[in-house]
Each structure stands twice: as C-alpha cells, then as structure tokens.
Specification:
This protein is an alpha/beta fold and 326 residues long. It has 13 helices and 11 strands. A 7-stranded mixed β-sheet has the order 3-2-1-4-9-6-10, sandwiched between helices. A hairpin with a 5-residue loop joins β7 and β8.
C-alpha cells in the first residue's frame, strides 16, 4: 500500500480514481486527467485488488509523472478505495473520477473557475454502451440559495453521485465524512448528502469554459447489477433515509420516489422475508411521509395499503416458516 516516493508541491486539487479490473478503460481515464489544461493537481490511483493488469498500468504511469500516487490494497470495494484516497489526499479540493469515465481537457479548469463556495458542480454527460451521450447535470439553478436548491433538486442525479464535483477536503476531514463500506449501492448518495448537511452554499460552473464535461459510463441494467435480498434493501434504505433526514430539509420528489427505487432492487425477494422490509422503521416512516405528501384520501389509502401489506406478508411469512419446519 505504498505510494511512489517522488515528492511534489501541495496541489490545489486531489483527483481520486478507484481502480478495480479496469484495464480496458483505465488508460483513457488517466490520459484525460493528465492532459487537463489546469495542471495544479495530484492524481491518486487506488488499486483495489485488481486481478488484471490495472495495478501495473497505474505503476507505469506513476513512474513517468510525479503528480501520480499509486496505492495497492486488498479488494474491499469502491467505498474503501475512495476512503483510502481521502485519507492520503493533499489538495485543498477533492474530486472523484471513476476508472471507466473520462474528462474533457478543460474540466478541472471549469471547476476551479468558481470561487467562494463549499461545493462546485461541473458539467457531466452520460454515455451508454452504444456511445450515446446525454446531459446529466443540467438544472436551472441560477440565483437559487442552498435552501431553495435542495427542496427542488435533491432527487436529481447530481446530488446522488460524487463525481463531477469539487469537495473541500478540510470539511470532509473535520466532519469525518466517509463512504459506507457495507453498501453496494446508495453509498454515493449518502456521502453527498452528509457533505451537503455541513455546507453553506453550492455553485455551478458557468460560462463558455463550463461546457467541458466529465463523461460517465452507465451500466446496462442497474436493477440487475444491484439486486439484493429484502434485509439488505431495508438496511440500505435506512442508511439513505437517515442521510436525507440529516439535511433538515424537505424534497417531496425524493420522498415520493426513493421508496420505489430501492424496492425495485429487492421486490422479487420480499415474499421470502417481508417483515425485513415492511417492519423497518425507516421504510414505515417513508411510506407515511409519502402518503402525507399526496394528502387527504391518498394519505388514508396509503396507510391502509401499508398496514394491509405489512399484515398480509407477516402472516404469510409465518405460515411459510411453520410449514418449512414441520
């Protein structure tokens, strides 16, 4: 887990790239960072137990460029890799790039064009397997305070992912903000929400140079990739819901939709362990909150349906369990 021994001045930005079996895309990612027009940065490549040539690729780049630090660690997941990067970063600002993403040459310059803020949001586009690009972070946020921005856009993708942004390293360390090691989805959202709970303001890249993008590759099938059992989904939802509540704000769209998003990942397993979902306090609170958002008769209907589902599944689960042990 030793970085290369070359030294460099304290950088303005630390770019953290978690790497795991990414040999096909890694060179494109690293090259796009090294050719940035803004050069006051360090690049931390965290090799998370790669079994392909990714670790060797990282070392070969580090041997040629003193801005690069490489850390090799046993496989522990993307969260542990990012946390190791946070622990070893030296910059005033942090930004994250995934190993299958790449950035246009003015991306860091665009991020640094914004001053006097706690979080900078850059331009990002989404790339699917066919190479199709579409705008990902576009919002009409001009003139909005943080108190106005979050209720309107908290469900938006830009607040659910760590890449495409600048974070103050001093704030992350002072408030001990880290990625959850035991989450396989939603850890990005929890990290950003926790960070947002301590910031005073958020700003966005503007002007001609702000059109420089981070290009993010999207997985083919999110639900298939992150499917989990009912207990796992309930635990993940609790983390997400708690992170949301710590913001001390209300986003009706988030409250109305996040339940369904997580439920999709476990719905095929709910009948095997329904109590783990319907009996989870955070899930119950979210159902009630969503019903209240829709008001009156809808609220009563939501409470009735939730109680019916919870009761039905609890009884069926007990019957199934009794038959199994007969």
């Amino acid at each position: 887990m030793q970085p290369n021994k070359k030294t460099m001045p304290t950088p303005k930005i630390s770019v953290i790239v978690p790497v795991c079996n990414a040999e096909k895309s890694l060179c494109r990612c690293i090259d796009s960072i090294l050719t940035q027009t803004y050069q006051d940065f360090e690049l931390l490549l965290i090799d998370d137990g790669s079994k392909d040539s990714s670790g060797a690729i990282c070392d070969s780049y580090a041997a040629k460029d003193s801005r690069i630090k490489v850390f090799h660690k046993p496989n522990g997941g993307v969260s542990s890799a990012r946390n190791l990067g946070i622990d070893n970063a030296q910059g005033e600002w942090l930004t994250f790039v995934d190993a299958d993403d790449w950035v246009e040459e003015n991306f860091l310059m665009a991020l640094c064009s914004v001053q006097q803020t706690d979080m900078v949001v850059g331009k990002c586009v989404l790339e699917d397997k066919s190479g199709l690009l579409r705008e990902l972070f576009f919002v009409c946020a001009e003139g909005l305070s943080l108190g106005q921005l979050l209720p309107r856009y908290l469900y938006h993708t830009m607040f659910h992912v760590p890449w495409g942004k600048l974070f103050r390293l001093s704030l992350i360390r002072r408030m001990k903000i880290r990625f959850h090691h035991d989450m396989k989805m939603g850890e990005d959202l929890c990290f950003v929400f926790r960070y947002l709970s301590f910031v005073r303001d958020v700003d966005f890249c503007r002007g001609k140079i702000a059109k420089a993008h981070l290009v993010h590759y999207a997985p083919d099938d999110f639900v298939a990739k992150y499917a989990m059992n009912t207990m796992e989904a309930a635990r993940h939802f609790t983390y997400i819901w708690d992170s949301y509540k710590h913001l001390h704000t209300r986003c009706v769209e988030f409250e109305n939709r996040i339940l369904n998003d997580v439920f999709e990942l476990c719905k095929v397993c709910v009948d095997q362990n329904p109590v783990a979902w319907y009996g989870t306090p955070a899930v119950r609170e979210a159902y009630i909150r969503r019903g209240r958002n829709q008001g009156g008769a809808v609220f009563i209907k939501t409470l009735f349906l939730y109680a019916t589902q919870a009761y039905k599944w609890r009884i069926l689960w007990r019957i199934k369990k009794a038959i199994k042990f007969q």
